[in-house]
């Protein structure tokens, strides 16, 4: 049975807040990453595999892999914060488990422990091939801090 949190959608207000914030991220736009799921405490980000994203062996670079993982976790936490709060990464650790190969990468950030100040997330990145096969290529853990929202 599929985990219910993989299908559950955040409220339209939360989805808009997350999308608006994501759209302000120059790095995600530069990489060509896009949000594909926004649920309570869970966010998915897809990154197409393109030559500009590769390292010397043709795999997606660890920097791009970890960037989408970091953002997925941050936005997963943001889905649980009130509208006057923002999120910043305090630290994260990522294990690169296999070469990041596939048609695209999918980063999944999941809140493990929400808190008033600090939130801990699980990070997973999958290499997804055109035929739909998926392989876990990276996983990690992240600590985030809730900060007061600043004027935009």
Describe this structure in words.
This protein is α+β, with helices and mostly antiparallel strands and 152 residues long. The protein has a six-stranded antiparallel β-sheet with strand order 1-2-4-5-6-3. Strand 4 and strand 5 form a beta hairpin. The longest helix has 17 residues.
Write a brief structural summary.
It contains three helices and six strands. The chain is of the alpha+beta class and 152 residues long.
Topology at a glance:
Blueprint: H1 12-23, H2 26-31, E1 34-39, E2 42-48, H3 62-78, E3 85-96, E4 104-113, E5 118-128, E6 134-148
Antiparallel strand pairs: 1-2, 2-4, 3-6, 4-5, 5-6
List keywords for this structure.
152 residues, alpha+beta, six-stranded antiparallel β-sheet, 3 helices, 23% helix, 40% strand, globular
Mean pLDDT: 94
Sheet having the most strands = 6 strands, antiparallel
What is the overall number of helices? 3
Q: Determine the fraction of residues in helical runs and give it as a percent range.
A: 10-25%
């Amino acid at each position: 049975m599929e985990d219910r949190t993989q299908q559950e959608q955040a409220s339209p207000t939360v989805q808009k807040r997350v999308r608006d914030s994501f759209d302000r991220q120059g790095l995600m736009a530069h990489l060509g990453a896009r949000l594909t799921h926004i649920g309570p405490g869970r966010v998915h980000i897809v990154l197409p595999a393109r030559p500009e994203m590769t390292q010397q062996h043709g795999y997606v670079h660890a920097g791009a892999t970890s960037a989408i993982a970091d953002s997925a976790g941050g936005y997963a936490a943001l889905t649980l914060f009130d509208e006057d709060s923002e999120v910043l990464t305090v630290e994260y650790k990522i294990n690169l488990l296999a070469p990041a190969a596939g048609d695209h990468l999918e980063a999944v950030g999941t809140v493990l422990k929400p808190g008033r100040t600090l939130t801990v997330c699980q990070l997973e990145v999958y290499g997804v091939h055109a035929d739909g096969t998926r392989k876990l290529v990276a996983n990690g853990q992240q600590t985030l801090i809730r900060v007061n929202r600043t004027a935009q």
